[in-house]
């Protein structure tokens, strides 16, 4: 792969990755950086991060290596870090006007660049959230790996696939995933609706409730209050019936 540094490219990042050290390291490789910044990062100029601004005001400071930290007050404080040469603490007219006042909307150059280019990341995250494979778990690294493989990598493959279609027809993500699965398992996905009994399954709920099956059995010889007290308290419920069942009662009900 061709080296991506030393080419004067601009890297757009959000505040999870932005730091002074990263900006200086990239700048030494002729690669620029622009992104939002978390005020708790180390080595930031206090005269910028702690300065109280009025709405529309901006303040900035550049270090000896060419890294600029800027703070701009919009509806709230916006802290930015940039190494782009044309980014300064001047506000640029966006060509838009505020409703009702016809006042020109002005923003810093770094904010305009960030808003314009971050859409690719937002789109990727949005599409990755559809039909997601992520599940709750204790091991955080497993979630990261699953998201990289079945989220980011899958979205990238889908975009590339659609870009090389000669007929111009784009395949929806769901159909692309189905085709990918079929190519891996060497078998077509059967879309025949499952029988009614197969669609009922137990899932873990958020709150313990009385088992409906146990309650109905006890009600044959006990008053409702006594039956309610003696019914099992369980977390599981049927996904289709939306009623709480213990495993034995669930099997009896849907056998």
TrEMBL record:
Keyword Transmembrane helix among record annotations: yes
Record-annotated membrane-spanning stretches: 144-161
Superkingdom of the organism of origin: Eukaryota
Sequence ranges assigned to domain PiggyBac transposable element-derived protein in this UniProt record: 2-158
Keyword annotations: Membrane, Transmembrane, Transmembrane helix
One Pfam family in the UniProt entry: DDE_Tnp_1_7
Signal peptide feature range: none
Keyword Lipid biosynthesis: no
The name this protein goes by in its record: PiggyBac transposable element-derived protein domain-containing protein
Species this protein is from: Parnassius mnemosyne
């Amino acid at each position: 792969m061709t080296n991506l540094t030393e080419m004067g490219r601009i890297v757009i990042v959000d505040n999870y990755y932005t730091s002074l050290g990263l900006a200086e390291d990239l700048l030494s490789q002729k690669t620029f950086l622009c992104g939002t910044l978390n005020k708790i990062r180390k080595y930031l100029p206090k005269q910028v991060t702690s300065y109280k601004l009025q709405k529309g005001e901006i303040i900035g400071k550049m270090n000896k290596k060419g890294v600029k930290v800027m703070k701009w007050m919009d509806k709230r404080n916006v802290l930015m870090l940039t190494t782009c040469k044309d980014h300064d603490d001047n506000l640029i007219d966006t060509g838009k006007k505020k409703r009702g006042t016809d006042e020109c909307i002005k923003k810093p150059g770094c904010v305009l660049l960030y808003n314009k280019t971050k859409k690719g990341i937002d789109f990727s995250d949005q599409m990755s959230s559809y039909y997601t494979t992520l599940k709750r778990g204790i091991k955080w690294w497993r979630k990261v790996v699953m998201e990289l493989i079945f989220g980011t990598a899958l979205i990238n493959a889908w975009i590339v696939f659609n870009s090389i279609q000669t007929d111009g027809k784009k395949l929806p993500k769901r159909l692309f995933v189905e085709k990918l699965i079929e190519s891996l398992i060497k078998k077509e996905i059967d879309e025949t609706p499952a029988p009614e009994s197969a669609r009922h399954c137990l899932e873990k709920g958020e709150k313990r409730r009385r088992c409906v099956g146990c309650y109905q059995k006890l009600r044959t010889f006990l008053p409702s209050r006594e039956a309610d007290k003696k019914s099992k308290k369980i977390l599981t419920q049927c996904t289709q019936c939306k009623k709480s069942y213990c495993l034995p009662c669930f099997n009896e009900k849907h056998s």
